[in-house]
Request: fold
Amino acid sequence: DWAEITAHDGLVIHGRSDATLNPGGVRIGTAEIYRQVEQIPEVVESLVVEQTIGEAAGTDSRVVLFVRLRDGVVLTDPLQAAIRARIREHTSPHHVPRVIVAVADLPRTISGKITELAVREVIHGRPVKNVDALANPAALALFRDLPALRN
Reply:
């Protein structure tokens, strides 16, 4: 879990520091989704996060999938349907992303790992901690204020 020690030695629990999703109370490991998306030939790589939506924080959430597509490929409705069908057929309806967005790049740590946590912070309008640990921090701008993610 992700926690913060207050000035009075108390703890504030912020939630999971890993990338486990929990839409509708169902725990989902992101690797379960990645295994399916990797089978789609048009997709080079992907990143999945949970987005809190609704009037009050924590009221509802949805799975959002970002995909980097092969050169010349466009994220069409049929391609989105194929991605969703693959995920649904090989996992569960809870794993299926409600929103799929094509992006030109995915943020990575200096060691090359795609960073879900930084994207989760950006799409919620929160500052990203440890931006210095990113190899390509400019990629975060691709995730800010996306029309597809507005409530």
Remarks:
- DSSP finds three helices and five strands in the chain.
